[in-house]
Design brief:
Length: 115
């Protein structure tokens, strides 16, 4: 059974930083592409960052230069380091594992950035 558990969200002032973690189980993590998405109230869920099994990354234009994504295969964990946070980064952040058959999502972690 695939499980993705996010943590690390919270309330932070604009300009601050947070690091999100997503621990995966039930998958062969080292060969799994992983990603972070977010959904703000009244908006569609959008890609924030993704990382392949080989470590190749891509980012939404809105977070380039501020966010980094990384993975620790020994810990079955993918991270999202978020720096220089802005109020518009406020959203629920979700971890994604994209298998060949379907997408698996975590329950999300709330990030709130105050101005």
């Amino acid at each position: 059974q695939v499980q993705l558990v996010e943590s690390g969200g919270g309330l932070v002032q604009a300009g601050g930083s947070l690091r999100l973690s997503c621990v995966a189980s039930g998958i062969i993590f080292s060969i799994s592409p992983m990603g972070w998405y977010r959904q703000a109230p009244g908006k569609q869920r959008e890609l924030v960052a993704a990382i392949t099994s080989g470590g190749r990354t891509n980012f939404a234009d809105s977070v380039k230069g501020r966010f980094t994504i990384s993975r620790d295969n020994a810990k079955n964990t993918v991270y999202l380091q978020m720096n220089s946070l802005k109020p518009e980064d406020t959203a629920v952040y979700y971890c994604l594992y994209r298998s060949p058959e379907t997408d698996y999502w975590g329950r999300g972690t709330q990030v709130t950035v105050s101005s």
